Amino acid sequence: MLVIGSVAAAIVLVAGGVYVAQRDTGGVDFASCRIGNVAGGMDSFGTEFQLTRDDGQRVSAEQVFTKPSLLYFGYTMCPDVCPMDSARNADAAALLKDQGMDVQTVMITVDPKRDTPEVLKDFTDLFSEDMIGLTGTDEEIAAVNKGWRNYYRANDQEDDEYYLVDHMTNTYLVMPGNKTVEFFARDVSPELMAERVGCFVNAMG
């Protein structure tokens, strides 16, 4: 399932079709860990990118995904969904840290007009000092969202200051080397997310 979140509701889209390919990350077999299946397989998610980190530095995908990462697409002026999802992801990473696993959280904005690096930094620090926020130009953000098959739309036609942004609410598990191996819907608890991510991390050895 791929989920779109808005202020009032979450719309569920079922990705039809047959699971085609399993993700091959350095020869590691993740089949026993994977629950989410989508048309085309997880190989169809992800892309190279150059974005601006919340410290103002330009970074590539390889520079960001140096460790297992929980990747989320959201925005800082989101009134409810994004804060809850970001808190859940941070809680899962904290649980994994208690188990000796180094997993980071990353948020790429779907609202580059308002989400400057400074704004992103203030937002991500609310949840974890280790959470990475990424922004860029309209074109860069559109390209990276397309790479993860993430739908978003800014409702700024009548108000260009206090608008809302419709967007999907999946969190993706991205392994070092920018390899996406799993996704999580927003109804997954921190405990279940930590358990499933831990399976992937342990499989890497």
Encode the helix/strand succession as letters: EEEEEEHEHEHEHEEEEH
Overall structural domain count: 1
The averaged pLDDT comes out at: 87
CATH class: Alpha Beta
What gyration radius follows from the Cα positions, in whole Å?
16 Å
Oligomer: single chain
Strand content: 25-35%
**Fraction of helical residues:** 25-40%
| Termini Cα gap | 29 Å
Pfam family, one: SCO1-SenC
InterPro entries: SCO1/SenC, Thioredoxin-like_sf
Binding site for Cu cation: 78, 82, 167
Protein name: SCO family protein
Secondary-structure blueprint:
Elements: E1 2-5, E2 10-13, E3 24-25, E4 28-29, E5 50-53, E6 58-60, H1 61-64, E7 69-74, H2 81-98, E8 104-109, H3 117-124, E9 132-135, H4 138-147, E10 152-154, E11 165-168, E12 171-175, E13 179-184, H5 190-204
Helix pairs in contact: 2-5
